[in-house]
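Subject: sequence -> structure tokens, single chain

Hey, anyone have a minute? Need the predicted structure for the following. Not urgent.
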Amino acid sequence: MSLDGRPVQAVLLAAGRGTRLKSPLAKVLHRAQGVPLLEHTLRAVAGAQPITIVIGHGAEAVEAAFAGRGRFVRQDPPRGTGHAVMVAREAFAANADRALLVVNGDLPLLRDRTVEALIAAHEASGAAATLLTAELPDAGSYGRVLRGEGDSVRAIVEARDASPEERAIREWNVGVYAFRVAPLLRALDQLTPQNAQGEYYLTDVIAHLVADGEGVGACRVDDAREALGVNTLQELAIASRLLVERRLGELMNAGVVVEDPASTFVGVDVRVEPGAVLRPGTHLEGRTSIAGGATIGPFARLQDAVIGADTVVLDHCLLRECVVGSGVSIGPFAHVRPETRIEDTAKVGNFVELKKTRLGRGAKAPHLSYLGDATIGDAANIGAGTITCNYDGTRKHPTRIGAGAFVGSNSTLVAPVSIGDGAYVAAASAITEDVPADALALGRSRQTTKAGWARKRRDTKAKGS
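Reply:
Had a minute. Here:
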């Protein structure tokens, strides 16, 4: 992120416990739209360099989750937002020529374009600090922005320290700031914990800057929802829903049919092409990709799945870490597990499970089958109830079914085993040896029929009664 050739650095405040979340998990690791809160903040400041992340509660877990995404500094013990910036001062002071973004880590709805607008306003004004603000009829627990002459900002007062008159102010501080580094460093040196909580407030920096004769400006966000922080599980759910609604709106504007937005979930990294149809109850997660013309659902969940054009994933299917070609039909009630590839025009029917399997072009597994560690050729037909016995209790073994092969219903293929191209396996067979191409394999005992046996049995029972 840069403006007129001036680079920007960032400090993200991610040390909070999130007491009202009532969770042992670090606040910024709670998920909205399928990814941690801090991930949304990192994306909003994408391009800033360097990025310093201030961590505290659950520090090890946060570092592990975001390794390589920035420099970490510890705030221990946490003593407020001002103290958080103090512990990061060595990192940002080393780049004093760069504008500094300071952003709360629990603002998942914040857009990158809003951050860019803040930086633009800051650079244009030459102010020592520029705040991102929003307005609501009732600003609740947010810090109020106090204006001075010429509509400049003179101070921010936390809601819990505000007078009744100050609490009536509708404009509030979002928790996103742009600073010039040198004045910020001087103001940080003046911070004292003179408040009811004994904490160092970053908001007090504003009053110190004003007292030093520095200019402080404000950039108001157009959509106040971007400024909503997360302090409770209810707020987390609201933020996640708003993020999903935003994404669904973008998709519908681009030509994706979303039949019931209220029941549809699309993750932040999901890609859906125009012309696709998402039916009610569809959940698309991870890095799922849906091509145009595909129809998903109702009540289907896809995670890290790639779906080709004109493919149909029917009711109540679960697909994970798989690749599906074009013109495929899957379901209902199918489970496609990781490392599976389904080629064009293949069919996977109801109650079929595939794991680490390649189903060839035009091949069919219409009903009630388990196919694991298998390679199935083009145009092969897998009868209802077929099972590949791939696990011997210690190791997994492969099954190969050739192109055009026909496997009859209720067959058991004991791996490792190979069925040749064009071969037939008779229904209800247990196959333990390879079947050559174009052969017929029968792996069942000969049927014995005893004429009149059932009638004699009934007669005997009747005499006994």
